[in-house]
Amino acid sequence: MIFWAFSFIWFKMANEDLRPVTIVFLRLIFAVVLLTTYLAFKKRFVKIRKGDYKLFFLLALFEPFFYFLGESYGLTYVSATVCSVLISTIPVFAAIGARLLFREKLTVLNYSGIVISFIGVVIFVLNREGTLSYSMKGIALIFVAVFSAVGYNLTLSRLVNHYSPIYIVNVQNIIGAVLFLPIFLTMELNPFLEINFNFRMFIPVILLAVFASCAAFILFAFSVRNLGLMKANVFTNSIPIFTAFFSFLILREKLTAFNLIGMVVVISGLYMSQLRGRIEPPDEALTLTGKTA
């Protein structure tokens, strides 16, 4: 959760020198090199079943393609803290999607948590005058990422029982890099080549690739297997807290009373939305649910 919380901050740092698509494209390339090297060393490559090619393409289309387009451009309009709070609603919408498509049952407490989470988001983005204090364009772009992540999680449920989480992430990153390549070449290659390069500007991108795109997934999958899905997923609610704290220390982002109150309400609602009458056994189909790639 700390690695994923830092991802919003690292992007903000990288965005000082690099454009959004460039950051995402380089991040994917670095992540693919790392995971491919690991899979080759461990000899864990497997043959993709014929019927799963479409699912892998759809998976990568949702994330990293649409997800990173929404999140990356959204972060150019809103703060890292605001982004993390909105992104933390992914488990709520994933639960709604599972209810609609898979008939997964939700309790009254779960629905109450969803409503409370929305109220918390509204409080978070209000200022003292009761009007929106953040760019609606930025918020809309972040919600593109949220709904893309929901599509990703629902598609993932068709694959995770047949392939390891690391292999799935690697394949989706490879396809994602291919999808981003034309955009990078047509929109951002020339600005990228005009930059006065230095190693410092690539440090946040490398950190994103190593810790957010690789290590966080491995740690979370391990945690789900050992703690169970419900116990592990509750920890995703801590992402906005970590992001706000680190943003305050590193980026000097200010927190208002509305921010703090909204954050508490959002996290409380998220917790309620995930409660069950009893703890269910781990569900491998939702191993990567929560903050995504």
What does this protein look like?
The protein has 293 residues and is mostly helical. It has one domain. The protein has helices at residues 2-14, 20-42, 53-74, 80-87, 90-102, 108-124, 136-156, 165-193, 199-227, 229-234, 239-251, 257-274. α6 (108-124) packs antiparallel against α12 (257-274). The model is unreliable at 278-287 (pLDDT under 50).
Q: How do you describe this structure in short?
A:
The protein has helices at residues 2-14, 20-42, 53-74, 80-87, 90-102, 108-124, 136-156, 165-193, 199-227, 229-234, 239-251, 257-274. It has 293 residues and is mostly helical.
Largest sheet: none
| Class from helix and strand fractions | mainly alpha
Radius of gyration: 19 Å
Total count of helical runs of at least 4 residues: 12
Q: In which range does the helix fraction lie? A: over 70%
Tell me, what's the shape?
globular
Strand coverage percent: under 5%
What is the count of structural domains? 1
In the predicted model, the low-confidence regions spanning at least 5 consecutive residues are 278-287
**Mean of the pLDDT scores?**
83
User: What order do the helices and strands follow?
Assistant: HHHHHHHHHHHH
Q: How far is the first residue's CA from the last residue's CA? A: 12 Å
Number of strands: 0
Write the layout of secondary structure elements.
Blueprint: H1 2-14, H2 20-42, H3 53-74, H4 80-87, H5 90-102, H6 108-124, H7 136-156, H8 165-193, H9 199-227, H10 229-234, H11 239-251, H12 257-274
Supply the key terms.
293 residues; 12 helices; mainly alpha; 0% strand; single chain
